Amino acid sequence: MMRTSFGERVTDWAVSGFLWGFRILIILIVVLGTFLTIRAGKYTSEQWIDFVVSGISQGSIYALIALGYTMVYGILRMINFAHGEIFMTGAFGGYFLATWLTGIGFMDKYPAIGFISAILFAMLISALIAMLVERIAYRPLRGAPRLVPLISAIGASFFLQYTFRGFFGPGVYAYPRIKALDGDWAIFGVEILKVKIIVIVAALLMMAILYYIVMFTKMGKAMRAVSENKDVAALMGIDVNRIIVTTFALGAAMAGAAGVLYSLIFRQVGFFMGFTPGIKAFTAAVLGGIGNIPGAMVGGLVLGILESVGPALFLESVGIDRPYQLKDAIAYIMLVMILLFRPSGILGERISKKA
């Protein structure tokens, strides 16, 4: 048995001390910033409600994207880093259909049908591209060491990015305006943008449909069986390849719908738009518990609310200038903190015994 040297022990103590110091520093900033902000009373209750609603709308988009990460991980134990670009392809699909419908006047005359059509078309485009990526980039490497599919996923991500850049250019497209979504709705005396409410309702509805499919349908039972043990599932007569393709398609469809909802809020579509939301959605999946579908939903909502409320609540009162420029940093700090305090996530990571 090898004995640990004094230098190695000192190094371990130093690393452990640094990590605990980092944890304590973050907690102090959060507690002190929250106390000072609440005491200062700078924001009204209506403004805090607006922050929360904005966070829920943003978080619901993260949750939809995170479902693709967590479903693929649950089946294949791999992180599909091309998923952010699948989200981007859906946004482009919805953009082109919405632009055409707006040009012929259909979107203004029948906004609900036009909006639903854009979402369905985006879901279809994303699902088809995800199935193609799975067939070309992942299936031939299914028995390879885990690092190999990961490298293939990164390559697929770059391929999709620069393919779309080649076809549609490096510029940013302005998403067409849907006049029916302009303005506010008064809810309990608080004015809230219509588009935020529509995004929240649409995202929650799609998450509920996906949860029903996974938990209460024959296909969902087969997906859960493959997630537990592919070999046993195959012996029971389940077509493993078909289940894996279906998992990719369902996760990609959610990401495609998220692309349309994201574009409604930010009104921009570009070839590089999938990178940051993709990383944040992965953070949300880890936050909720990678491989756990309800965890991905909860993680996305929590992350969105923290991004929206956090800068004003935690940072503004501790002397940080322009705290909203650090909202992206909050997402990555959350990822580090959850890995330090609870690596399995809020609801726990679902991993089969064999894994």
Fold and architecture overview:
With 355 residues, the chain is mainly alpha-helical. The chain is built from 13 helices and 4 strands. The strands form 2 sheets. The chain has a two-stranded antiparallel ribbon. A hairpin with a 2-residue loop joins strand 2 and strand 3 (190-193). Helix 2 (45-76) crosses helix 11 (275-288). It is globular, with a radius of gyration of 22 Å. The protein starts with 5 loop residues before the first helix and ends in a 14-residue tail after the last helix. 43% of the residues are buried. The model is unreliable at 351-355 (pLDDT under 50).
Q: Order of strands across the biggest sheet? A: 1-4
**Shape designation:** globular
Number of helices: 13
Uncertain parts: 351-355
Main beta sheet strand tally, sense and closure? 2 strands, antiparallel
Order of helices and strands: HHHHHHEEEHHHHEHHH
Estimate the mean pLDDT confidence: 88
In what range is the share of β-strand residues?
under 5%
Determine the N-to-C terminus distance: 29 Å
What is the number of strand segments?
4
Residues in helices, as a percent range? over 70%
What class, by secondary structure content? mainly alpha
Radius of gyration equals 22 Å
